[in-house]
Write a structure and sequence with these properties.
The chain has twelve helices and no strands. The chain has 280 residues and is mainly alpha-helical.
């Protein structure tokens, strides 16, 4: 049976108001909020909050972590991060300049270093520094012993990434800056040191800060070097106390300490990126 569509039907369909894009967006946003609220309610209703509190938020266990959590674990984590960042920054700058060198062997060596250390897991580098280096060079003693080993391992990990970041920052500086410095009589090395590199570092401050956040978390691999009680960082400290107390509250509190540092650093990165974008 065939249904005939008259002219009035077509006129009525055309006369019906269509939903505006703005209204569709509102409805879509409302549906998404509703799904989110339902998911939160379902998770909250199904979770065993008493068991979670006993295992992750036992205040009596948390009180036993202080003051060593701050004076030993957090302090060591910060020291490991800063020393590793310093070594990585210096080594990364050298590798970046080699990467930009006109001497082909320097470029090849820099590329080999970057590809090698970016392709290896950080855990293997820690094992190499802690086990391989003493076997390859008997009698070699790192300055600061374990602290020196950690600085070397974290520096080797981060330098490969920093080198590419620094190289990109140097290449982002307008070529005219270097040419103007050379016109004023500066040597290439002096122009790079006084004009180009300072401008490059202003450009790459946000990604370098982000690299520090990554190093702060990578410092948890220190436990594979066999540290003493006074050399433990947050993860090792939390694991040891969790084994002693048969409770995971120490690990949860150690995680909060990581957030206490990484969240402000992440906010700083976003602020620096926004300021750099505004300046550009």
């Amino acid at each position: 049976m065939t249904t005939l569509i008259t002219g009035k039907d077509r006129e009525g369909a055309a006369a019906r108001p269509r939903m505006s894009p703005r209204r569709r967006r509102r409805i879509s946003r409302g549906v998404q909020y509703a799904v989110f609220v339902v998911a939160v309610v379902v998770v909250g209703a199904l979770a065993d909050w008493q068991q979670l509190q006993e295992q992750f938020l036992d205040l009596s266990v948390a009180q036993r972590l202080f003051p060593e959590l701050i004076t030993v674990a957090l302090l060591n984590t910060v020291v490991y991060t800063l020393t590793g960042f310093g070594v990585g920054l210096v080594l990364g700058l050298v590798v970046a300049l080699m990467r930009l060198s006109s001497v082909a062997p320097y470029r090849w060596l820099a590329m080999a270093y970057i590809e090698f250390f970016r392709g290896l897991p950080a855990l293997l580098i820690f094992i190499f520094v802690g086990v391989g280096v003493p076997l390859a060079f008997p009698g070699l003693v790192f300055p600061g012993e374990t602290y020196g080993q950690v600085a070397c391992a974290l520096g080797l990990v981060s330098a490969a990434y920093m080198a590419e970041t620094i190289r990109a920052g140097i290449q982002a500086v307008p070529r005219g800056q270097l040419e103007a410095a050379r016109t004023l009589g500066m040597s290439h090395a002096t122009a790079m040191r006084s004009i180009v590199i300072p401008q490059a570092f202003r450009i790459i401050v946000p990604p370098l800060t982000n690299e520090m956040v990554l190093l702060f978390k990578d410092s948890s691999l220190v436990l594979f070097l066999g540290v003493t009680l006074q050399q433990r960082e947050l993860t090792k400290f939390g694991r040891d106390l969790a084994s002693t107390t048969a409770n995971t509250t120490p690990i949860f509190v150690a995680g909060l300490c990581y957030l206490l540092v990484t969240v402000p650093l992440g906010y700083l990165v976003r602020r620096l990126e926004a300021r750099h974008a505004q300046a550009r």
